[in-house]
Amino acid sequence: MATKNTESEKKTNHARDAQTAGFKKPVQPSPELAQIVGSDPLPRTEVTKKVWAYIKTHHLQNPANRRNILADDTLYAVLGKKEVSMFELTKLISGHLRPI
Predict the structure, then answer these.
(1) Which of 12, 30, 65, 93 is most exposed, with minimal Cβ within 10 Å?
(2) CATH number for the 26-99 domain, one of 3.30.450.40, 1.10.245.10, 2.30.42.10, 2.60.40.10?
(3) What is the pLDDT along the chain (100 residues), one digit of tens a residue?
(4) What per-residue string of b and e applies to 3-17 under the rule 16 or more CB within 10 Å gives b?
């Protein structure tokens, strides 16, 4: 049996949709980041997926501590460090994204 949403539930659902919309908005990558993810605008979530795909394809995770990424020359241009933790990754990448 279907239930009707109350007015307060509708407002809550709308607020949740508005919060996630920011992740879905396309952003423009910098020229350095574009070498990894492409130059077309894409959502932040896709940027993160493509960066992780690049890291895994090029075997850039530290074998001794897989939470750390060992940057090659292309990734170093984006991160500015030879080794970063996966927790720093998103913060460093966000500096290379501009809203459209």
Answers:
(1) 65
(2) 1.10.245.10
(3) 555 665 555 555 555 555 556 778 999 999 999 999 999 999 999 999 999 999 999 999 999 999 999 999 999 999 999 999 999 999 999 999 999 8
(4) eeeeeeeeeeeeeee
